[in-house]
């Protein structure tokens, strides 16, 4: 019985990149082709063993070796044993180096560190959705920052924007008739940020929101006296909590978010593991 063709996938990291390329390639063929992943290559002796096995089996090899010495020995050994191989990263790195005039970092596993950052972002986004609008005050204790403010002070848009920066944000609407959750009083003041806004600016924002929802005429939600009462209540709550306050009246989301990011980074430096 004929031996099934094989591809050895070799890497000085996990080897997932090379394996993905190999799978995408053999998917174009009806013939069965085996894939053998060999990760975490650190020594020339490991490469020698792989090349010997590949030569014995008549197998192919693809690799994403980043270490220059390992790549050099791999090429010498593969050519010496007449093993067909593909250097997946090498040509691309050479092209980028020639084009931009910068040398690569030559650190294996960088893509997986990038993946880790991606998953942190996803986690932060899920957190922002779960703890939006005071849905579950239990999330306050694990949030990087808790935003508080009256309706339409950009709490939710800010939460989502910051989540894309891998910052976990919970937010709490301040309504005079609604009792504050006990959890907010157990959060350190430096992890709470109050959002305030000019009452007439807020009146305009709320009026546009009502129109977008198909409502006409006046409502308590857009009444200027009601708005001023809400803002007065919110400022009193912020005073009680001793939290930092940001006026968002004439600020874009990006500007306010930039300020909050600076605050979070500074607090992490100041409070470390306590943050």
Structure description:
47% of the residues lie in helices and 13% in strands. It has nine helices and eight strands. Strand 5, helix 6 and strand 6 form a beta-alpha-beta unit. It is elongated, with a radius of gyration of 29 Å.
N- and C-termini, Cα separation: 64 Å
Q: What is the CA-atom radius of gyration, in angstroms?
A: 29 Å
* Quaternary structure state of the chains depicted: single chain
Structural class: alpha/beta
- Provide the succession of SSEs: EHEHEHEHHEHEEHHEH
Global outline = elongated
Number of strands: 8
Helix content: 40-55%
Low-confidence stretches: none
Q: Helix tally?
A: 9
Largest sheet: 4 strands, parallel
**What percentage of amino acids are in beta strands?**
5-15%
Mean pLDDT: 89
* Sequence of strands across the biggest β-sheet: 2-1-3-4
How do the helices and strands line up, and which of them pair or pack?
Layout: E1 6-10, H1 16-26, E2 34-38, H2 44-57, E3 60-63, H3 68-80, E4 85-87, H4 90-100, H5 110-130, E5 145-149, H6 155-163, E6 169-173, E7 192-196, H7 199-212, H8 224-241, E8 244-247, H9 253-271
Parallel strand pairs: 1-2, 1-3, 3-4, 5-6, 5-7, 7-8
Helix pairs in contact: 2-3, 5-6, 6-9, 7-8
């Amino acid at each position: 019985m004929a031996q099934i063709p094989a591809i050895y996938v070799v890497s000085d990291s996990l080897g997932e990149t090379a394996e993905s390329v190999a799978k995408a390639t053999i998917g174009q063929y009806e013939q069965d082709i085996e894939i053998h992943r060999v990760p975490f290559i650190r020594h020339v002796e490991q490469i020698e063993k792989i090349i010997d096995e590949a030569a014995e089996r008549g197998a192919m090899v693809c690799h994403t070796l980043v270490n220059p010495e390992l790549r050099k020995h791999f090429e010498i050994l593969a050519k010496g044993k007449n093993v067909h191989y593909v250097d997946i990263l090498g040509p691309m790195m050479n092209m980028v180096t020639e084009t931009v005039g910068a040398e690569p970092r030559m650190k294996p596993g960088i893509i997986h560190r990038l993946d880790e950052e991606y998953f942190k972002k996803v986690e932060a986004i899920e957190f922002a959705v779960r703890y939006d609008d005071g849905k579950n005050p239990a999330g306050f204790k694990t949030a990087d920052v808790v935003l508080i403010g009256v309706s339409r002070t950009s709490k939710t848009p800010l939460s989502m924007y910051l989540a894309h920066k891998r910052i976990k944000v919970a937010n709490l609407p301040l309504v005079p008739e609604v009792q504050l959750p006990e959890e907010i009083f157990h959060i350190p003041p430096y992890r709470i940020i109050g959002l305030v806004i000019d009452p007439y600016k807020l009146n305009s924002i709320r009026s546009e929101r009502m129109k977008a929802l198909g409502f006409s005429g006046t409502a308590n939600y857009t009444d200027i006296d009601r708005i001023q009462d809400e803002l007065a209540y919110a400022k009193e709550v912020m005073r009680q909590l001793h939290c930092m306050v940001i006026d968002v009246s004439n600020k874009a989301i990006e500007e306010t978010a930039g300020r909050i990011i600076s605050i979070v980074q500074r607090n992490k430096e100041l409070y470390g593991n306590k943050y």
